[in-house]
């Protein structure tokens, strides 16, 4: 049987060079931005810097700008298909938001990727309204996770209310005027019952989360339901060597320790007073107990389901792109 990593590689034994993906090196990809007008001004760039603290602006210009152009082409393609379908049906059904899924490990840079894409996509014609929803809002509240014995399984597929998440995206793709999602606080490490995210027919909705490319679940009668990705118009898997992601996780934990964790309301406040060595050991413990097994068992196996795989090197820089052939 062909393994998932073999599917991604044209160099796999017996593949005869066939793979469903076109592979581009970073250099080839960056060249695609030569003819693109930079849609960001100085203020936008300052704003982007604020969100992705270490984000390199050359990276934005060389990697994310061409990617936003590609996504803009897919949005236009979907629009044309929608018009053709309306003509065929002799009925002008309203267009639904273009939904992009962004998947990958904890700490690989999904949020940063999603935020940069939101800023860039907003500046392309036809997609001024871009919304972003993270799947952590669909985690069960801590009390429910405790009841199910899942507090040490946060981020694993079973820690989410998957039915609610599926309903949310399905309603967005059904053209509902207003769809609501619950909101998760990284500060209190729990769902905040009085807050929610309201999505009102944006041009583009980015859905970002660990498990957004998970396959459909098996029903009790053995048949398969729908997967979240059945509602995606495009999907991106942010990939990197596991050892690098572990390092980024620990680095982010250390940074939060001297920032957010010092807030007495923070769930991790108890870590604020740890020595550097103790804090690094705590972060490594959480990584090894929860995030790494989840990455290995549930997240990496979904990589081959993405339309685009962005592969990072040890410095967060994208090294190569695998784009599914159309
Ligand atoms: N493209 C990038 N360049 C530099 N640093 C990045 C980049 N993407 C993410 N980071 C850093 O890596 C860490 C994890 O990124 P984040 O977007 O929070 O990951 P995730 O949402 O996957 O958990 C953060 O400290 C972030 O600042
Ligand atoms: C909240 C998360 C499960 C990520 O959720 P996502 O938005 O990717 O669905 C993750 O960031 C997390 O908190 N994991 C638990 C282990 C830890 O504290 O790192």
TrEMBL record:
One of its GO terms (molecular function) is pantothenate kinase activity. Belongs to the prokaryotic pantothenate kinase family. This is Pantothenate kinase. ATP binds at residues 104-111. It is found in: Cytoplasm. It is an enzyme of class 2 (transferase). CDD domains: PanK. Keywords: ATP-binding, Coenzyme A biosynthesis, Cytoplasm, Kinase, Nucleotide-binding, Transferase. The keyword Lipid biosynthesis does not apply. It catalyses: (R)-pantothenate + ATP = (R)-4'-phosphopantothenate + ADP + H(+). One of its GO terms (cellular component) is cytoplasm. Pfam families: PRK. HAMAP family: Pantothen_kinase_1. The keyword Nucleotide-binding applies. PANTHER family: URIDINE KINASE. GO terms for biological process: coenzyme A biosynthetic process. Its EC number is 2.7.1.33. Pathway: Cofactor biosynthesis; coenzyme A biosynthesis; CoA from (R)-pantothenate: step 1/5.
